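Our working data are protein records whose layout never changes between entries. An example says more than a description, so a record of this kind follows.
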Amino acid sequence: MTWSKTGLVLAGLYVAGAGWVVWTERVSTGGGWINLRFMGSYLATFPVAGLAEWLGMKLDFRRIVDVAVALGACAALVYLMGWGVERLFRGR
């Protein structure tokens, strides 16, 4: 099995961007009169977090395990999309 370079690059960029969003939300102390804490984490992992919420398993983004699972699953989805695009343009 060969790894898709396009998928790996896209998944790496996703993990870097989503990881930055999650990290900045975890170190932030919160805002003024409204608290939108962990909203960015939810949006960065929407395919997994939305499905989990729809199935009744709401993720707790204060727990690092939930964040890691959601980021890992979303990175796998991004990799698969990159793999599909690469196969589409290479014609295999």
Notes: The chain is about 70% helix and 0% strand.
